[in-house]
Amino acid sequence: MSRRLPLGEGETARTACARGLLRSAVVERTGEVLSAAMLAERVGWAADLVSRMAAGLLAEHWNAAGVEALAAGVDVEGRGLPSQAWMALRRLGWTAVPPEGVRVNDRVVRMAQEQAGRLLRSAAWRADVTGGVIATWPADPVRRTPEEWDAVREAVPDGKHLPSGVIRSRTRQIAAFAGKHGRMPADVFELEAAPQAARMLLLSACDSQQATIVRTDDPGRALLRLQLPTRPDPRSYADWAWVACPITLPPTVPPGAVLHLPTLRIHAGRVHADLAHSHAVPTARRTGHTTALGVDWGLNTLLSAGAVRLHDNGTITALGGGAQFRAAGVLAKQHRLRRESEYLHAKTDHYQCLINDADGHRLSGRHAVLAEEIRHVSARRSNLNDALAWSAARWTVDQAIAAGASVIYVEDLRSMEACGMGRTLNTRLSQQVRGQIVDRMRHLAAETGIAVVTVPARGTSRHCPRCLVPLRHRKAPDRPTTPGWKWATCPNSDCGWQGDRDTGAWQRIAARGLTHQTKTVVDRASGTMAIRSVVDTLEATAVVEPTTPPARRDRSKTGPTRRRTPRPAPRRRRAPSPTGPCGPAGKRPEGHAPQGRTRLPRAAHRHQGVTTISTSTPTTRRHRPRGAALGAGFHLHAHATPPQWAEPTPNPTVRTGSLS
Predict the structure, then answer these.
(1) Sign of the alpha-carbon torsion through 390, 392, 397, 401
(2) Which end of the chain has fewer surrounding CB within 10 Å, N or C?
(3) 363: Cα separation from own chain's centroid
(4) Quick one: 282 exposed, middle or buried, by C-beta within 10 A (0-12, 13-18, 19+)?
(5) Per-residue model confidence as pLDDT tens digits over 154-205
(6) Nearest residue to 655 via CA among 574, 565, 598
């Protein structure tokens, strides 16, 4: 099967990955059917061999000389190293040796070299950052001066745009080593041990002599053929056999996509396959955008987004009032799981001190139970963050598609550090999965050719989107004298804009992105787009002009008021009366039917928009999302407002009118 993807004009190749599951297999030589457990056992034997060889290769070259030789990109003869890690290691003469008495083919050795090479290449960046921090060690590691910040960024390669959180985490790691050993570490290889090799099979490093994958007649299925050992320690090539594994392709894999050899992993006794595939997508443009979606981050309102349009005369107008993705319940649940994890870790450490490496201690059983509970809570937190990231990213891309936007501008908060807001609020801000949301946003937006660009976040919530005057922030529109941060009012009498703080922020972000789109740069390594800095001359034009309100119908009185009868006859219903909750069917409700709002399930009862006024008093208890307290599902924790664009499409199926 050819791996070349035919591309048309304005198209580019996009490589994505989908999750699959190997449920059974057939040994081609004997016709034996392997169950899921037997297949997992054989894949585990091969993964153990690969991880053992990769671990030996890592232990041998986990040093400054080895990583620098690989990061240099040239071999001893001055030739450039290939992009494939296993080929680069072979060019350098680094080989992986199988265990004594075990016979493996060259493709199995390739998988071990590929895994070790990827880990060693990733260590080069960590070595540069750690070396720069050690070389410019500050007088006070807790608080650097501006001069010390400039020095450490100059010492780190490409440190100008490096998030400050990365430098702070490396500083804390080095300070902990110095406090324990009484000296500074020499490099990252003394600071960190060699990474562990995972139990997986990187089939992408193999060729058709080890594994093949082809589509079947059914477009939703594929057949994976690979060689697996028939015993844990194969002594000869006869102990390896070809196995055919049918795979059901996920619906996210397009029918015309080119399939690549997957990566096999074992989890919970089953074989999972990371199915890589390439398909053609529209090319995302760097410039030339006229309609953009601005996205602002928040705490309880995780995302606030809205569309703006750049007109031919250079003016920018907003399309509608925007929308919100509220995740207060999800974040509260994540915060509760974090506190539970901290409690379990503290209790486990206390048990460990009491046990003190004693064999047969009576607390050993409880310690093991707590360790398993910590693993379970960590898995729940990871799954919750992953679900929140995919849901928020999917919602954002859907907003851009509905508005017809060709670019999404997101404020760059990689260097944001939560401080000065209280211990609880600082922790909740630091736990948000902004990086995961942006990565998933890029992944989903690439399918439709929508560009995702990060813009500087400084001043987006502080200045007015219409006149760029610093705003005055209050608690709510009906409490203009109470200090707060949610409601913003422009003090400029000629402007008079007021609205939700997040609404003004997404307008500023989108306007800044459209005016600075010629300054967009593309990272060569990752392909991500970003606007690095703000130009004052362009920022002066990044204002959102108010839209002209539609002309209202003249309702002036032109004649005498029509006389109405004091006892009008009631209009007949246009539809039969609905069946009441109790009583005989078809009976009309006596008097006026109650118009109270129906009770929604758990956390879904909150209907708060950007213009909701405050209902709290100084004596009210702190808000606690009800869905999080009752343990509601994920989709009852997160709420998203529908897009409100300038010209909404009417729904002909809805009939409004009085029934009286």
Answers:
(1) positive
(2) C
(3) 40
(4) middle
(5) 999 888 878 888 898 899 999 999 999 999 999 999 999 899 999 999 999 9
(6) 574
Query: What letter represents residue 199's amino acid?
Result: R
CATH number for the domain running over 291-330+379-545: 3.30.420
Cα dihedral 220, 223, 224, 230, rounded to 10, equals 130
Please say whether the beta carbons of 156 and 148 come within 8 A.
no
Residue 412 has pLDDT above 80, yes or no: yes
At 223 the three-state DSSP class reads strand
Let me know: does 637 contact 327? Beta carbons within 8 Å. Answer: yes
Check: CB of residue 127 under 8 Å from CB of residue 174. Answer: no
Every domain of the chain and the residues it spans:
12-280, 291-330+379-545
Query: What is the value of pTM for the model shown?
Result: 0.78
Per-residue pLDDT reduced to its tens digit, 515-535: 999 999 998 878 899 998 899
Instruction: Check whether 497 has a pLDDT greater than 80.
Output: yes
Q: Give 530's contacts (C-beta < 8 A, 6+ positions apart).
A: 161, 412, 453, 454, 455, 520, 521, 523
Q: Distance (Å, rounded) from C-alpha 441 to C-alpha 387?
A: 13
The more confident residue out of 319 and 596 is 319
CA neighbours within 13 Å on the CB side: how many for 458? 9
Q: Which residues contact 521 (CB under 8 A, 6 or more apart)?
A: 529, 530, 531, 532
Task: Give the model's pLDDT for residue 158.
Answer: 82
In this prediction, what percent of the chain has a pLDDT beyond 70? 82
Over residues 543-555, mean pLDDT? 75
Select from 503, 499, 502 the least CA-distant residue to 488: 499
User: What does DSSP assign to residue 404?
Assistant: T
Pull the structure tokens for residue 66: 């080895």
590 versus 413: which is more confidently predicted?
413
Report the SS3 class of residue 521.
strand
Mean pLDDT of the chain: 83
Q: What is the DSSP letter of 251?
A: T
- What single letter denotes the amino acid at residue 77? E
Token pair of 428 as six digits: 């909740």
Q: Report which DSSP code applies to 612.
A: P
Residue 638: CB atoms within 10 Å: 22
pLDDT in tens, 554-567: 677 778 888 877 76
DSSP 507-534: HHHHHHHHHTGGGEEE-TTT--EEE---
Query: Which residue in this structure is represented by tokens 């809205």?
Result: 306
Picking from 230-234, 304-308, 651-655, which range would have the lowest pLDDT averaged per residue? 651-655
- Which tokens belong to 356? 């003190």
